[in-house]
Amino acid sequence: MESSPPTAVRSTSPAPPAPAVGFAGLGRMGLPLAQRLLQSGIPVVVYNRTQSKAESLVPAGARWAASPRDLAKAIGKGVTFLMLTDGKAVRGVLFGRGGLARAAAEGALVVDLSTIDPEESRANAARLRERGVHYIDAPVGGSVDAATRGELTLFVGGEASDVGRVRPLLERVGRRIDHMGPVGAGTSSKLVNNLLTVGITALSSEALTLADAFHLDRPQILEVLQAGGGRSGMLESKSPSFLARQYPAQFTTVLARKDLRLIERAASREGRVLKMTREARKLYDEAIAQGHADEDFASVLEVALSRGRTGTPKPLPGPATPSSGPPEDGGPAPN
Ligand SMILES: NC(=O)c1ccc[n+]([C@@H]2O[C@H](COP(=O)([O-])OP(=O)(O)OC[C@H]3O[C@@H](n4cnc5c(N)ncnc54)[C@H](OP(=O)(O)O)[C@@H]3O)[C@@H](O)[C@H]2O)c1
User: What is the pTM of this model?
Assistant: First the structure.
């Protein structure tokens, strides 16, 4: 009797479950990111200082950890993301009472998505390394909408092996992942990025103030500007707020000012003076003083418009002809 040809053995056992990842910080950005990880089938253990913000995640399958230490214990040698306000919050979650560092297993990896000072990124990495814990900085470009859609840009700093290890997870939340160099290169790149995004928004608000002074139609000028050399992603994304003069927060004014302060501090450490950044920061200082701290940072438009209104109009010296106008080299204007 002929024996039948051997058939390929098919395993019927299911694929092993993906290891759980940790997520600390469920604010405007952290919540949609944790949601995305859950939606892509990754078990997530979450911690947030204010527990109520995790409520929508638990029915979606997330496990709650009562402290960063409990989170570290649950994750073992795995990966934990941080998405926190600033350097102080990151330090507290990592090294404060009930912090993550003491309980973290050797070989665990912390991915800090927060925008903080590059020096703080390097200090955090060094302190964690003493415990055998790895750290990369991976702050993000893009706001809440991009986080929800998994279309963030990630500026990554760290050891290539750590970046390689976490890349499949980063791909769940980011459209573009750029490894910029060692630890601190991610946060450095993010500060360069935000000098532009936050600065352009301040400058856009002054441009619209000038447009108002010229009695131009705001919807029309916003549209035509996007066809010219002054077009920008920020002008486009902030146009609805600029038109409605309503500022529901995606990225708050107080966080924008935080980033400009970080930029000024880091630049001064490197012996650089960024005068336009300083002027932009003053605009955000005023916005916060006028009560716009927790609104979107597009609220600087209100400051720029109010500055315009309080200025005393100067009488024009005469027809703006080359003979009668002020000289272009900045010399004394004719009387
Ligand atoms: N929003 C954006 O469009 C955007 C875009 C790119 C980058 N970023 C950066 O991403 C980070 C998060 O921004 P976000 O807009 O998500 O801010 P957010 O909504 O204010 O959330 C901040 C998170 O940090 C937590 N936190 C603050 N202080 C803490 C402390 N001392 N201890 C423990 N947890 C603390 C908050 O906990 P509670 O819930 O208890 O307050 C919350 O989970 C910031 O570094 C920001 O610059 C934001």
Answer: 0.90
pLDDT tens track for 61-106: 999 999 999 999 999 999 999 999 999 999 999 999 999 999 999 9
Q: Annotated catalytic sites, by residue?
A: 190
Quick check: CB of 174 below 6 Å from ligand 1?
A: no
Q: Which CATH architecture has domain 189-310?
A: Orthogonal Bundle (1.10)
- Distance between Cα 81 and ligand 1 center (Å): 13
**Could you tell me the distance, in angstroms and rounded to a whole number, from the CA of residue 327 to the centre of ligand 1?**
49
What pLDDT is attached to residue 19?
Answer: 84
Thinking of the domain 21-182, which architecture would CATH place it in? 3-Layer(aba) Sandwich (3.40)
Out of 23, 29, 137, mutate this one to test ligand 1's pocket (max ligand atoms within 8 Å of CB): namely 29
Instruction: Evaluate whether 21-182 and 189-310 have a shared fold.
Output: no
In degrees, to the nearest 5, what angle opens at C-alpha 325 toward C-alphas 319 and 330?
160
- With a CB cutoff of 8 Å and minimum separation 6, the contacts of 171 are 177
Secondary structure E strands in 158-296: 174-181
